[in-house]
Structure formats: C-alpha cells, structure tokens
Design a protein that fits this description.
4-stranded antiparallel beta sheet, 4 helices, 12 strands, elongated
Amino acid sequence: MSDIGSGDEGVSGQKYNAPNMDGSGDFEQNGQQAEQELATKMLQIQSKRFYLDVKQNRRGRFIKVAEIGADGRRSQIFLALSTAAEFRDHLSTFSDYYSSLGPPNPESVPDDGKLKSEMMIKDNRRYYLDLKENARGRFLRVSQTISRGGPRSQIAIPAQGMIEFRDALTDLLEEFGTNDGGFKGELPEGRHMKVDNKNFYFDIGQNNRGIYMRISEVKSNFRTAITVPEKCWTRFRDILTDYCDKMKKSSDPSNSADNNLQSSSNSLK
C-alpha cells in the first residue's frame, strides 16, 4: 500500500494555470497588501506538488505552503517563520513515530484514523497536525483555523515525504531565520477632537493583523467606533478631502455668484 495523500482533505482551490506560484494573497489571505516573494521551493511527493514560498509584507515574513493535487486542485496554509520552525521540529517527531510503525493493519487503526496528533498556536491561528491512516495510506494532515471564525484550510503530506518536506523548510529557515519581523517603530500618539456634545478619539494600535486606527465617537450615554486598517488610510483621507473640497465649493458665495452669472448668460443666448 503506498503512502499517498488521504483524499479526505476536503479543500479545493483555484487551479494553477502555470507550474509556479502566482504570488497573490498575503498572510491574511486578503490579496490587498503589497508583498514581495523572497524565495520558493517546489517538492514533488508522489502524485502531489508542494510549493513553499517565503514572502514579506509590512507585517513581516511568512511562508505560504500550497499543495497541488494530481487533479490540479489547490490547497494552502500560511505559516509565520516562527511557526514554520515549530512545524519543522514536529515533522521530525512525526517522522520518527511513522518509522516506528509496522505495516498498515486496518484492524488496529482507530475509528477516526488518527495515529498521532499535535497542535500549534500562533496569535489568532491554530494548527492541527494529525498523522492519519486510511485505505489509501498514511499521511500528515495539517489544518489551519482562525479563532475569530472563517474557513478551515488544510494540506495533506504523504507520510513518506515528511523528511523531504522538513529538509526544505530547514533550508529556507536557515536562510531567512525564524524572526517574523513586521513593523517595529513607535506608533503615533492618539488624538482627541470635540464637536458640540460629541467627543472623537483617534487611537493608533497594532495587533497580529497589522496597524490600524480606531475612531471612536463618544457622547454621555453612547459610544461607537470604527477600525480603519493602515493600508487604506491614504484612500480614506482622499475620500474625506474630496468631500471637503466639494462642500467648500458649494458653500462659497463667489462660486454661487459665478453660477448665477453663467445661468443668466446662457438664458440670453
């Protein structure tokens, strides 16, 4: 029995039109933040191709792991460099355990097919590592979930390819290290503005998703807030500036007089 992927991954993605990664998307998978590809590796493990891409954006460096099945289906997960280092160590442990197993025996396999499991936590992400066995063989399923909800993404590595996968990760981590990077400067201080009976507070913060501005409107018995990601501040400003310019023009008396003269001129023609 060959150790091929499970077939129960359950995640199908877009088909690649080319044999290399398209570079779209980032660690949050929103496709909106500019990023740079620093390195890439391709592994052929049985019938599957795996791409390991080291990428960098304002939030730091990370590795995008994409699995391309024999039918062209794509699945992917994202790992911060520090998480990739932890995953590499787990791959060694899982590989040792796999080597200690005897030949597959359907009668001794647990009902859920899991032979060994581990979990990794990074910020708001959880990664579940499950060495499983089914009728098609043994494989390591790696699932990524986000604590605030959202779809689960996962890949399945044939058990025989865990060492090759670990060695590829090791090469990348030796070159780029395990520091996730990201913005390290000092954030601007908060600002306050009062208009009539309302107070507006502008606070700059940072979390694992990046830098943001929280704008809070506070009255005596009411409070509400919006959060604006740093990557769209410029666009946010441009929209406000455009509205300010239009309101200024519409309320300018000289502009109204010009419009009246233009209307009179048109009526005489």
